[in-house]
Design a protein that fits this description.
Number of strands: 16
Helix content: 25-40%
CATH superfamily of one domain: Alanine racemase
Order of helices and strands: EHEHEHEHEHEHEHEEHEEEEEEE
Strand content: 15-25%
CATH class of one domain: Alpha Beta
Distance between the termini: 29 Å
Radius of gyration: 22 Å
Structural class: alpha/beta
Number of helices: 8
CATH architecture of one domain: Alpha-Beta Barrel
Length: 363
């Protein structure tokens, strides 16, 4: 890419960039924490989407990656990632055919919560001549997808175990409902309750002679707690490698490494700045507005389609049209996928430009 070797400050905007020193520091910090906890790391790449970064994570000790969508998993497998968990239901003949074809390229696993889906996966795997790894998704309080803990999970697990073409691997859950708790003690208690539900259900499965080898869960919002509660065998924390204002609200302590650089394009009043980054590149949908740490007098940010509107705490005429500032995203998962490229910057210089290959993979 022609931008390699350029100073970050001359990049055309809006530009999504990551501080490589901080990214690598965050990756090393998380890898060390999970090693200390004695838990395997399978980072979720729904907010990363770049195979080169996935390879960095694996070199740091991750066992593979977690994907939200089959299309993401195809991108990762094509880039040589061999161990992939799709933490979502794959339903319908077209997607199931793609899934079993992908099984020939990588050790791809999938979660289920429906008996008819189990039967369809088994039939497709047998027709393709592959064995597909399957986990049961358990609803431990998130109240999204998933089978209820206890006997309903045992029943579906037994069906998987008896279905030719499938290999029963264990259970998955996500204690994301606990992120609403700002009190650290209450959050810890609710995470422990959710993981205990999963562990107790796993014990019931084992008592039924079902070989539970994987208990997958956790995320960036629970990464400091979930690995240290007995039960999980692997944690899916991924977004903490970048951090952002939402993750910081959830207690993430990694350093802010990801930014959107934007340029002032209008100064309609001394109290207002207009930037060239609206919700198509710097959204404020998460409830945590993006924030420019280097901009004096910042009061608020509001995005329209193509404009970012910054209000100042007091009049300021020193900031001019053409000045550029770096914004911390409100939520990385709602920001990164809007961009075509991520610029990797070290000591102020663009070292690498990554295409965001997993963006737009909605199927």
């Amino acid at each position: 890419m022609s931008e390699i070797g350029l100073q970050k400050d001359v990049l055309d905007t809006p530009a999504l960039w990551v501080d490589l020193n901080l990214l690598e520091k965050n990756i090393a910090s998380l890898a060390a924490l999970f090693k200390e906890a004695g838990i395997q790391w399978r980072p979720h790449i729904k907010g990363v989407k770049i195979p080169a970064i996935a390879h960095k994570l694996i070199r740091a000790g991750a066992i593979g990656v977690t994907c939200a969508k089959l299309g993401e998993a195809e991108v990762m497998a094509a880039a040589g990632i061999e161990d992939i968990l799709i933490a979502n239901q794959v339903v319908g003949p077209e997607k199931i055919t793609r899934l079993v074809n992908l099984r020939g390229q990588a050790d791809v696993k999938v979660v289920v919560d429906d008996g008819a889906n189990v039967a369809a996966l088994g039939a497709a795997a047998r027709a393709k001549g592959v064995v597909l790894g399957v986990l049961v998704e358990v609803n431990t309080g998130m109240n999204r997808a998933g089978v209820l803990p206890g006997q309903p999970t045992v029943t579906l697990s037994r069906q998987i175990q008896k279905t030719p073409g499938l290999r029963y691997l264990g259970l998955m859950a996500w204690e994301g409902h606990t992120l609403v708790h700002e009190d650290a003690g209450q959050k810890h208690q609710e995470i422990e309750k959710a993981i205990n539900l999963l562990s107790e259900t796993a014990a019931m499965c084992r008592q039924a002679d079902l070989p539970v080898s994987i208990l997958s869960g956790g995320g960036s919002g629970t990464y400091k707690i979930s690995p240290f509660i007995p039960g999980l065998t692997e944690i899916q924390a991924g977004g903490a490698i970048f951090s952002d204002l939402t993750y910081q609200k959830w207690g993430v302590e990694t350093e802010q490494a990801l930014f959107v650089r934007a340029t002032v394009v209008s100064r309609p009043t001394p109290e207002r700045l207009i930037f060239d980054a609206g919700f198509k590149s710097l959204p404020d949908w998460s409830g945590r507005m993006p924030r420019p740490p280097g901009l004096p007098g910042f009061a608020s940010f509001k995005a329209s389609a193509e404009h970012g509107i910054v209000a100042l705490t007091s009049p300021d005429t020193s900031i001019r049209v053409g000045d550029a500032f770096d914004f911390i995203p409100g939520y990385t998962d709602m920001t990164l996928f809007l961009h075509d490229y991520l610029y990797g910057v070290r000591e102020g210089v663009v070292e690498v430009v990554w295409a965001i290959q997993g963006r737009g993979k909605l199927r």
